[in-house]
Amino acid sequence: MVVACGGTGGHLFPGIAVAEEWRQRGGEVMLIISEKQIDTLATEGYGHLRFERQQSIAMPKLCSPKMLGFGMGFLKALTHSRRLLKSFRADAVLGMGGFTSTAPLVAGRTRGMPTFIHESNAIPGRANLLNARFSTRVLVGFEACASHFSGGKVSVVGTPLRPSLAATPNREEALRHFGLRPDRKTLLVMGGSQGARRLNELTGLALARLPADRVQVLHITGPQDFESAEKAHREAPEDLTTSVVSFCARMEQALSAADLAVCRSGASTLTELAAFGLPAVLVPYPFAAHDHQTRNAEIFVETGAADLWPQGELDESNYAGRLTALLEDGARLTSMGAAMSRFAIPDASERICDLIATTIG
Asked: Is the pLDDT of residue 76 over 90?
């Protein structure tokens, strides 16, 4: 099987999870990823998997002068994909979303093999609406997403969780990993694999306003904002315990150490929060296509698993205070965590592999 993923952690990590499950069943797998820096970082530690890099360009509007460049890039990627599928002798192609998936899916379809896409968000993006046209079956993470695809070829399977998150370290071990204290509530701030600039800025400004005797901060910044965030942490009050990293390869440790997460509401992030039963403040990326992150967040807010704080409502004067109030409401955090756990679908990778194996026959 070929798994086309990459471009963001939200595509890549679920793709790796499916690849690992396929290998455990005795199958061979090749992953097609993008040339972005995040793909290089995220694939470290997976030397046993075969990765092939391929240029990926997002499709512009039809009337855009960039369409010519997109078309030429797509034809190049299609030729590359056909060559890879033929040499690998692939039986099926699974696209995990984004335009990284398009050329491999088209190549698979033209070779007459079963093709699949996975959409993890509540509202599909432009790429997967296009990719669905070249797919034998559409797999979705949320029931709410199924209605966006026509033809009755949709299965709800959940979103795969990367294998490293299957193990749950104890809290003390996780805190030691980041040099944090066991007698403080731990706030985890993360913006996904590529960071979230506004969350990073607000967190830097909030450090001086947090109660250092009761709260500590674990901050995953993304590579682009690490230097500025690290400076803010160096200038924070000396009695405030913090840990700041650009990228976290041991997310099972970060999620186990935290009492509350502040993050965007991409589907993979929500899947990880659910697996660890971690309550969250969700701050949707306001410029996401079709505002799909807000819809993702609303699904979790409706059950009490998370709070939704629109980015435009947050500023230096209210961010720290609202976080402190929530961190100190133990009963509320317990209730939110229990509700979050009910969203966990630990066998999503198995469901996907079952469907593909059945189709291949």
From this structure: yes
What pTM does this model have?
A: 0.86
pLDDT in tens, 96-148: 998 889 999 999 999 999 999 999 999 998 889 999 999 999 999 999 899 99
Cβ-Cβ contacts under 8 Å for 334 (sequence gap 6 or more): none
260: β partners: 187
- Provide the token pair at 87: 């040499």
Kindly tell me if the per-residue pLDDT of 193 is higher than 70. no
Tokens of 15: 């793709």
Contacts of 26 (CB under 8 A, 6+ apart): none
Residue bearing tokens 């994909």: 81
**Cα–Cα dist 90/88, whole Å:** 5
Which domains does the chain carry?
2-161+346-360 (3.40.50.2000), 167-341 (3.40.50.2000)
- Whether 22 and 1 have beta carbons less than 8 Å apart is answered as yes
d(CA 15, CA 19) in angstroms, rounded, equals 6
Query: CA 181, CA 66: separation in Å to the nearest integer?
Result: 52
SS3 342: coil
Q: For the purposes of burial, counting CB atoms within 10 Å of the CB of 340, is it exposed (0-12), middle (13-18) or buried (19 or more)?
A: buried
Q: For 108-175, give the DSSP string.
A: HHHTT--EEEEE-SSS--HHHHHHGGG-SEEEESSGGGGGGS-SS-EEE------GGGSS---HHHHH
